[in-house]
Amino acid sequence: MNRTDAFVERAAKQAESPAENHAAPQQPEAAIGVALPHESAALHVSGEATYTDDIAELQGTLHAALGLSRHAHARIVSMDLDAVKKAPGVIAVLTAEDIPGENNCGPVLHDDPILAVNEVLYLGQPVFAVIAESHELARRAAALAKSDDVIRYEPLNAILTPADAKAAKQFVLPPLHLKRGDPDAKIAAAPNRIRGTFEVGGQEQFYLEGQVAYAVPKEMDGMLVYSSTQHPSEMQQVVAHMLDWPAHNVVCECRRMGGGFGGKESQSALFACVASLAAKLLRRPVKLRADRDDDFMITGKRHDAIYEYEAGFDDNGRILGARVEIALRAGYSADLSGAVATRAVCHFDNAYYLSDVDIVALCCKTNTQSNTAFRGFGGPQGALVMEVMLDSIARQLNHDPLDVRLANYYGIAERDTTPYGQRVEDNIIAALTDDLLDSSDYRARRAAIAEFNAKSPVLKRGLAFSPVKFGISFNVPFLNQAGALVHVYKDGSVLVNHGGTEMGQGLNTKVAQVVANEFGLPLSRVRVSATDTSKIANTSATAASTGSDLNGKAAEAAARTIRARLAELVAKQLGGNAGDVRFANGEVTVNGGAMPFDQLVGAAYLARVQLWSDGFYATPKVHWDAKTLTGHPFYYFAYGAAVSEVVIDTLTGEWKLLRADVLHDAGQSINPAIDLGQVEGGFIQGMGWLTTEELWWSRDGRLMTHAPSTYKIPAVNDTPAAFHVRLYQNPNAEPTVFRSKAVGEPPLLLPFSVFLAIRDAIAAAVPSAQHAPMLRAPATPEAILDALDALHAQSASEPASAQGTSKEATTSDTNA
Ligand code: MTE
Ligand code: HPA
Ligand code: MOS
Questions:
Q1: Where in this protein does the record put region Disordered (predicted)?
Q2: Are residue 232 and residue 108 in the same domain, yes or no?
Q3: Is 746 part of any domain?
Q4: 482 forms bridges with which residues in the sheet?
């Protein structure tokens, strides 16, 4: 037995017992609800998994690299690419003029040039493409873009921050505004008020595999594009438009990505386009793989945001009226910012009922990378400010922030409708919270931490609880559709193709489990093939956490069609009703008789029964009015909560997450091992966003943090020593595939509790301060020290007698 087989066997043995805290699957014989290893786990760890850059290169393959702009905003006065063309190994240098069709790779608006024309809108924007004999030679030649002799610019005024864009009223899309009730009057009449500002940074997706595409020209104006993308259909479409071809000339294939995290939902397009353009013009295969620094400089990230908020509340901290303005950095073009901003609006409420509320979201146009999807897709930016607000409210009232949160939870009757008009019908947050508070021992630890802090002058501990309610569905209703194709071959083996893409999240494993279950087969009899636009047409991006909801259902439908045909045949042969046929343990049984699945399939072939089928799924119930920002954008909600405990060093600003307790609702999990992995990964990734990952642009708009040397993502030693992650057993109220729930994005919001615990520790360091700490995110050591300084300054300037008497507080969480 080779190492790979041994690994799989061991993993399968470990997986035999369903994970703790998970109820027995509905059909005990099926592979549903079992903690099976990821379909490619052995390949991942042995290095055998084929990523786009690992595809064996065809003879004659050329390599592309991009020449990037040196200015954040400038007119291109002239280009003289002779020196680039003469550089060693260079075959061709391409500019926008070489594009036969549309010079655009934008997903929604047509404001994303593939190669810049006349003007550059951010520092790092691709202006030309070098095609050379090798990757290295292409990069060397492309680096000549740094020379003044190659491109002459006339610098123009650049807007580099969302604040400046807001002041200049520069937006990529019109502002979004959702208002319910009369928040101004409610805030004015409230017994207590709070007002403040806050800021949160952006986040680089930092997929381990960078952006890459490999384009292979085919006969009769055909193009096969291997792309590391979450959205093969869109890659097909933008490449076709760029070449002025019909879509059927282009095939896009993706076996897997080494992570996408939203960064390959739209922004894989530029790379797919440039590789395809060169392949078309030169009639040779062309590969474009961005090096890490270029990837950072070219592609968009999570939207950073600045906020202004105001709330009125009663003496229990219950919000009576609230107002927020969320100014997101969209960057130089619209990309997906409209949908991101919409999701930010729809997640401001998080888990809390807001009777009277006013939410504005701005898509600020800046001369920086065009920000895009990142796990949570604006949801985290919407909900974070609510949690900060509640924390400040609690501190003003001198209550435990937990109790203020509980007082604001969605409830029943009048308190169950979101600001956008959707009722919260599947609310389990209260029960989930009780479970977590019990298991994490929150109240007792709160007291123990106070005791510790009283005795510890330098190190201070902090504790915080935060909940998540996350709406599941694309917030653009038509995107909620998927297709699948299931083939049963004559020997009884099964091949599944679906429109989703595998990026490490385990989608293929879950879809294979669903199909194996339909046929009563072990997972080893089902293989999932690469995503391919010539198999499933017009797919949506694998995004919005809906991959398994959509493609699982489509594959289930396809398998059921085949199963029904087989059932009819076996009922004829063994007697009985087709409806009574059972598929389990590799056998088909009915009427007291049994037949091996493989034998039935062979018989079906000879009887000329169609052994393959397509399947389609469209999510029911969802609708949305983009004008009024109301409707039923989400099929259901996923819930979760976390309790985090940190310690900070008040002299250095260093901190450590000591313990995290997480309880997350993945519905009735199809695969608890994969879902736990998603919860753990999402938690740590969200923690990175809020603590160590800091994007920093120089005064001339150059992103200075463009490599792991300057941009700190969490590593294994940032995982808390005590990390208690559990799935909450809760079958979806809606009939999703096996009543599971989407789990990809919601856990990213769980580490709000880490940020809030740091705030708690800072507050503990200055017990005399009346106001909440003004901590910006990410809570780097500098930010923590700034917050401590501000709190000390505040407490020194306030007479002790004034403390606790103020009914109104103005806080600034921004230390800009
Ligand atoms: N997990 C891994 N390992 N790699 C990824 O790139 N992307 C996340 C999440 N989990 C991602 C991941 C994002 S942004 C989304 S939208 C979902 O996975 C997409 O996959 P799903 O819909 O199948 O859950
Ligand atoms: N998530 C991800 N991508 C999207 C969405 C969403 O909610 N809406 C439109 N594109
Ligand atoms: Mo995920 S941000 O919807 O790709």
A1: 1-27, 794-816
A2: yes
A3: yes
A4: 617
In 332-454, which ranges are E strands?
A: 357-365
Indicate the pairing of strand 319-331 with strand 357-365.
parallel
Residue with tokens 């319910």: 180
* Cα 266 to averaged position of ligand 3 atoms, centre (Å): 10
Within 6 Å (CB) of ligand 2, which residues are found?
A: 265, 336, 339, 343, 373, 377, 474-476, 479, 541, 543-544
Asked whether residue 676 falls in the same domain as residue 791, the answer is yes
Regarding whether 313 and 273 lie in a shared domain, the answer is: no
Domain count, the chain: 4
Q: What is the mean pLDDT of residues 662-680?
A: 98
Kindly report, residue by residue over 768-801, the tens digit of the pLDDT: 888 899 999 999 999 999 999 999 998 888 654 4
Strands 481-488 and 612-618: antiparallel
- Considering the domain architecture, whether residues 492 and 429 belong to the same structural domain is answered as no
Q: Residue with structure tokens 């580099």?
A: 160
Beta carbons within 10 angstroms of residue 453's beta carbon: 20
Supply the range of the domain harboring residue 643.
305-475+627-813
Question: Is 334 found in the same domain as 225?
Answer: no
Per residue in 122-167, pLDDT tens?
A: 999 999 999 999 999 999 999 999 998 999 999 999 999 999 999 9
How far does Cα 482 stand from its chain's mean position? Answer: 19
The structure tokens listed for 367 are 């001369």
What gap in Å lies between CA 36 and CA 443, rounded to an integer?
A: 36
Query: Tokens for 676?
Result: 């736990």
Q: Average pLDDT, stretch 510-527?
A: 96
Question: 589 — phi, psi (to 5°)?
Answer: -125, 145
Choose the residue to mutate in 343, 377, 503, 548 for probing ligand 3, maximizing ligand atoms within 8 Å of C-beta: 377
745 as an active site residue: the answer is: yes
Structural domain contains residue 564: yes
Residue 713 burial (C-beta neighbours within 10 Å; 0-12, 13-18, 19+)? middle
Q: Do 648 and 507 fall into the same domain?
A: no
Give the rounded distance of the alpha carbon of 533 from its chain centre.
Answer: 23
CATH number at residue 502: 3.30.365.10
What's the pTM? 0.95
**Where does a domain end: 267, 298, 329?**
298
Residue 105 counted as domain residue: yes
Does residue 18 have a pLDDT over 70? no
- Of 354-368, 490-504, 785-799, the poorest mean pLDDT is in 785-799
Question: Could you read off the pLDDT of 712-771 as tens digits, one per residue?
Answer: 999 999 999 999 999 999 999 999 999 999 999 999 999 999 999 999 999 999 998 888
**CB-count exposure of residue 457 (10 Å: 0-12, 13-18, 19+):** exposed
User: Which residue in 425, 745, 798, 808 is the catalytic one?
Assistant: 745
